[in-house]
Amino acid sequence: MPTLRWMAVRLKRSSSFVFFILFISLLGLVYCFSLINKKQYGNIADPESRSPFKKEETFQILPASNFLKTSTSGVISAVISVNKTQTNSQEHQKEPTLKTKRSRGSLNSKVHVFYYAWYGSPPFDGQWWHWNHEYIPPWDKNDHKIYPTGAHVPPKDVGANFYPELGPYSSKDTEIIDNHLKMIADSNIGVISISWYPPGQADENGPPSDGIVPILLERALKYGLKICLHVEPYEGRSVANFRKHLKYVHETYGSHPAYYKVKKGSRNVPLFYIYDSYRITPNEWQRIFTTRGDLSVRDTELDAVFIALLVEYKHRFDIKKAGFDGFYTYFASNGFSYGSSWKNWKGLANYAFKNSLIFIPSVGPGYMDTRVRAWNGKNTQPRRNGVYYETAWRTALASPAKYVSVTSFNEWHEGTQIEPAVPMKCGNYTYESYLPRSSSFYLELTAKWSAQLVNRTIS
Question: Which residue of 16, 169, 180, 201 has the smallest Cβ count within 10 Å?
Fold first, then answer.
């Protein structure tokens, strides 16, 4: 008969054997699991072999190709394709998560974006327009430094510090127009304010732009967008011919369903931004904007909401005296002017409220124009991976403002565009880009902040 000591020894040995078998089985399971995991996700130590997680694919910012129908306007598509291939992996690894799903019918009409249709390319226009912009001589006559001169030579050498993902396009290209309108709508912008000159007139670097307005109006309907005019300081501008041009606009575009109108009293009237409005004296503007003026448009079919440009401190009093309905700040360089300085926006909003005026601060993603104004580096505002843009938006909403204008969708010369840009080199010059963000990053940020304007939340 076994003794108690003998039984204890046998039991101890049996237990050790069982634990040993369990341990070996566990090691086998761990090894099998690691093989499956490596096959599914790649080698974690080697990012080159790792495929994206499904969760990352759901929340990452979309590349700009998702906003577009075509990759380029056909001018240099091969060059851009190479650049996109080289940078694609970097963008997907580093992109933050911004998800902005919404229905197109809910576009925010309180967000306006400044749009430029002055670009031209040989396939559509017979020559380059604006992309070949000349270097502008220094405004300061005491600045005797030597700066670059002459015109740029597209397609790779363009008059901008950034390079457009669509290439140096023509504003007449209907595919480009559709791409732009889709981007703007997907950014939850409701109103496009197009740079406008009267028929037959233009700036010195581009063709007349009035002819593009009917095309934009028609195509804007598809995307639920509205169009208003940003009146440029055309040659010979006066209150008398301005009134004549208002009549032309009213008769030509006034009844179009995509022409932007706002509620004013019991009527719906258009809205006009008037750039460099200070070039005409308040007393002259009174002739058209006050009810007692000899050219008054008030309470007539030509009445509208007229928004002046505020640059200097004294302009706010001039704007009130002239009879404008409100003011905007346009410039995207914080500190460049009194109006564009963020620290002044709360005071300007307060002044507007007390005087029954509309205050529309202009926010921009940054500012850089040294490819056309080589001497203007002091006003450069780096984008800082979106921090600059978000600070501008946050300040505008806190001012508070009911409307916000975005400078700009595609003013490439001044580097204020939210339109997608891609990395590019031209000789010894390397263009700025949005890296490590995706090319659509500023469209996504605009959608985010537009939603916050609707909800009146600031984060």
Answer: 16
- Three-state DSSP state, 263: strand
Residue 193 host element (H or E):
strand 189-196
The span from the CA of 366 to the CA of 334, in Å, is 9
Nearest-angstrom CA–CA distance, 440 and 434: 9
Q: How many CA atoms lie within 13 A of 176 on its CB side?
A: 26
**Bigger pLDDT: 190 vs 100:** 190
Q: Quote the DSSP letter at residue 426.
A: E
Name the nearest CA neighbour of 115 among 329, 401, 406, 448: 406
Cβ atoms within 10 Å of 52's Cβ, excluding its own = 12
Q: Give the count of beta carbons closer than 10 Å to the beta carbon of residue 199.
A: 12
> How far apart (Å, rounded) are the C-alpha atoms in residues 1 and 171?
104
Q: Are 280 and 293 in contact (CB under 8 A)?
A: no
C-alpha 272/C-alpha 260 separation (Å) is 9
Pairing of strands 358-360, 326-328: parallel
From the CB of residue 389, how many other CB atoms can be counted at a distance below 10 Å?
A: 24
pTM of the complete model: 0.80
Q: Identify whether the C-beta of residue 214 lies closer than 8 Å to the C-beta of residue 137.
A: no
Q: How far is CA 371 from CA 131, 134, 158, 182, in A?
A: 11, 9, 8, 28
Strand partners, 228: 193
* pLDDT, average across residues 186-190: 98
DSSP 39-63: HHH--TT-GGGPPPPHHHHHHBPPP
Q: How confident is the model at residue 455 (pLDDT cuts 50, 70, 90)?
A: confident
Q: Is 306 left (phi over 0), alpha (psi -120 to 50) or beta?
A: beta
Task: Give CA–CA dist 223/104, Å, rounded.
Answer: 7
Residue 404 pairs in a beta bridge with: 111
Distance CA 94, CA 437 (A): 7
Task: State yes or no: cis peptide before 155, omega within 30 of 0.
Answer: yes
Pairing verdict, β 267-274 and 226-231: parallel
Within 10 Å of residue 101's Cβ, how many Cβ atoms?
5
CA distance readout (Å), 59 to 62, 96, 223, 403: 9, 8, 24, 29
- CA 231 from chain center: how many Å? 20
For residue 134, give the nearest of 167, 161, 159, 154 by alpha carbon. 159
pLDDT (average), residues 80-106: 43
